[in-house]
Amino acid sequence: MNLTENLVQEVQKVIVGKEDVIKNVLMAILAKGHILLEDIPGVGKTTLALAFSKALGMEYKRIQFTPDVIPSDVVGFSIYDKKTDSFVYKEGAVMCNLLLADEINRTSSKTQAALLEVMEEGSVTVDGKTYPVPQPFTVLSTQNPFGSAGTQMLPQSQLDRFMVKLSMGYPDFESQVNILKDRQTEQPLDSIHEVVSKEEVLNMQQEVIQVTVKENILRYITALVEKTRTHELISLGVSPRGALAVNNMAKAAAYVKGRDYVVPEDVMEIFVSVCAHRVILHPRAKVSNTSAEEIIGEIVRETKAAELV
């Protein structure tokens, strides 16, 4: 059993029946991406983040976004120190390895932008001084699709910064029974052990970068992306940033399976989770109640990789 399998099994101690979600989160972390979880309350989003932080030996912080959270809560601020007669930087929530940004859509656009800028740049700038965030660094953001009164939904340009958008959903019947069993007398999170250190995570991220993607796979990714830009039910297709995210996530998918090269199945496996949140649907799609996931899935099924070799 390799390291990635050990990591998945460790997180499964607390997240029951959601192996696909766990693997996608792991792949996004290894691909140096950020994750958006859009889901109903109470399905284990916070538990998922905590479990990964423990298994990966990463420093964890959580910020609960509300309308009164301001950018300095996220990135930090300078405060005058009378002893040294100078301004001292006080760290914000982003100064960690794994940040759970809970209900990001409940805060102001300005605060959202502060977080998303850090996600893109990997550093914060306060009073003209730049401070890099610790490495590895991953943001796991959540947003609630229901009860949106008083919230600020993320605009498309900011959604594009997340490598994947995932949904955990309700557990199935047997998984729910197991969850109830496991929590009768103890907290399963206490049983999570560190499988790899932060330094090993950084090494794994470098190994993912070295995974080979041949030209026929690049053509396959491009063909898929192009179809999102010309599809009759999509008004805005996948951006070049999105195409790069597909490439990087496919590398991570291959790595998790123990390969140092990408095959078309790796691309097919991750394309919907990487791209569905990056497109804007035509009004006709909404009228017919067709989701972005359904359209992207159809594009994957209809595009034959073998024809692009």
TrEMBL record:
Residues 34-164 form the ATPase AAA-3 domain. It holds the Pfam family AAA_3. InterPro entries: ATPase_AAA-3, CbbQ/NirQ/NorQ/GpvN, ChlI/MoxR_AAA_lid, P-loop_NTPase. GO terms for molecular function: ATP binding; ATP hydrolysis activity. Coiled coil: none annotated. Residues 227-298 form the ChlI/MoxR AAA lid domain. Transmembrane segments: none annotated. This is Uncharacterized protein. The lineage of its organism: Bacteria, Bacillati, Bacillota, Clostridia, Lachnospirales.
